[in-house]
Design goal:
Elements lengths: L1 E7 L4 E8 L2 E8 L6 E7 L5 H19 L2 E5 L11 H15 L6 H27 L4 E9 L2 H10 L3 E7 L7 H6 L6 E6 L7 H10 L5 E6 L9 H14 L1
Parallel strand pairs: 4-5, 4-6, 6-7, 7-8, 8-9
Antiparallel strand pairs: 1-2, 2-3, 3-5
């Protein structure tokens, strides 16, 4: 892991931009601490870290300054300044075309849109986790939050270092992920916007039902995709505090 820049904030948070091979990301940690901090991975949507930075940094700094966590995020494959993935670009074009003419979004389109990203992103998150946990100021257990929910499902199912996950409904879910969800057993908190214009509410509820976790909580709020109440930030922090500290 190579640190490319760093800055310190008045709230006692140290931010470092890093690269790990072709992976780029940000790490936020307490500027001074006597003990290693538990880690939360925040997965962004595939819109590029440059565009999402204000929202991600605000969330991360709250978790660090108010709860003492370490937080990291990384650019998804094919997103931001990373090399494009032709299969994803084609799937996104097929999705736009179907939506523009009012055709149903088929399972074939959803699989092509999501599964290649899951296949590439999950091993990258595991490699990033290896590098982060090698730092003396960071320790387990590890939490995962956000992003494309299928990435979170796969990572929580295959990565034993993930101890709790906060997942955001609102992205397309391939059929195969419902079976993988049954293998997820860590504590879960799932956030669902009830009127999300781009989300299949029934599919989101079915996925929640499929999770194998004995402890799983659904936070369903009225409003569209961008109308998440501000208090959900604190709810997420308290969820991770219960399970990582």
């Amino acid at each position: 892991m190579h640190v490319t820049s760093e800055q310190r904030f008045d709230d006692g948070v140290l931010e470092r931009e890093f690269s790990l091979g072709e992976i780029t990301g940000f790490l936020w940690t307490p500027e001074s601490t006597s003990t290693p901090a538990p880690l939360i991975l925040i997965s962004p949507p595939p819109l590029g870290l440059g565009k999402m930075y204000p929202r991600l940094a605000g969330r991360a700094r709250y978790y660090v300054a108010d709860y003492g966590f370490a937080v990291a995020t990384a650019e998804l494959p094919g997103s931001g300044d990373r090399p494009r993935l032709a299969v994803l670009d084609q799937a996104r074009a097929d999705l736009r075309r179907a939506m523009e003419v009012g055709e149903p979004v088929t399972g074939k389109i959803v699989d092509a849109l999501i599964l290649p990203l899951v296949e590439k992103a999950v091993p990258e998150w595991q490699a990033t986790l290896d590098a982060l946990l090698a730092l003396p100021e960071i320790c387990g257990p590890v939490g995962y939050e956000g992003g494309i929910i299928s990435i979170g499902v796969r990572l929580a199912a295959v990565e034993p270092r993930i101890a709790a996950a906060g997942l955001f409904a609102g992205s397309f879910v391939p059929t195969v992920m419902f079976e993988e969800a049954r293998e997820v057993t860590v504590p879960l908190q799932v956030l669902l916007q009830w009127d999300d214009e781009g989300n299949d509410r029934q599919a989101a509820l079915a996925l929640f039902d499929a999770f194998g976790s004995k402890e799983k909580t659904l936070h369903a709020n009225m409003g569209g995709h961008t109308g998440v109440p501000e208090y959900e930030l604190d709810a997420g922090a308290r969820f991770f505090a219960r399970h990582l500290k």
